[in-house]
Amino acid sequence: MAEVFAGAATEFDDGARKIVPVNGREVVVLRHNGRYVAYANYCLHNGGPVGEGVLIGKVEGILGEHQTSAGERFSQEEMHLVCPWHGWEYNVETGVCAGDPTRKLRRYETVERAEGVYVIA
């Protein structure tokens, strides 16, 4: 297995990301909750550059008395990466598609060494 240098650890504040070429494909590398994750920069819907999208909390419904809708809120625990083309959302920690949990982004392993962060390909 080859290791591809993604950048110095200091370049990855929580939520910061970089697109790096890995074996001829784009991979988005980001740090979330102190851990590094890397996914193919390819949305499962229509091939958009998912890694260029925004990070938002998962939208959660709020149930009121009698199980009626009392609005919505953004989750503080589960973050989603949103494809900028058509809004498909993916769980940052797992790569699972919010709209279709049977699908998920291709994940790459990462490793942090003294000189930086690497994607294992």
Describe it for me?
The N and C termini lie close together (6 Å). Strand 3 and strand 4 form a beta hairpin. With 121 residues, the chain is mainly beta. The strands form two sheets. The protein has a six-stranded antiparallel sheet, with no helix packed on it. A three-stranded antiparallel sheet has the order 5-6-7, with no helix packed on it. Helix content is 0%, strand content 52%. The radius of gyration is 16 Å and the shape is elongated. The protein has strands at 3-7, 17-22, 25-32, 35-40, 55-63, 69-82, 89-91, 107-113, 116-120. The protein has one domain (3-120): 3-layer Sandwich (Rieske Iron-sulfur Protein), CATH 2.102.10.10.
Task: Give a brief rundown of this model.
The chain has 121 residues and is an all-beta fold. 0% of the residues lie in helices and 52% in strands.
**What's the arrangement of strands in the largest beta sheet?**
1-9-8-4-3-2
What is the level-2 CATH architecture name? 3-layer Sandwich
Segments where pLDDT lies below 50 for 5+ residues? none
Give Rg in angstroms. 16 Å
Total tally of structural domains: 1
CATH topology name, in short, is Rieske Iron-sulfur Protein
* Largest sheet, strands/sense/barrel: 6 strands, antiparallel
Oligomer: single chain
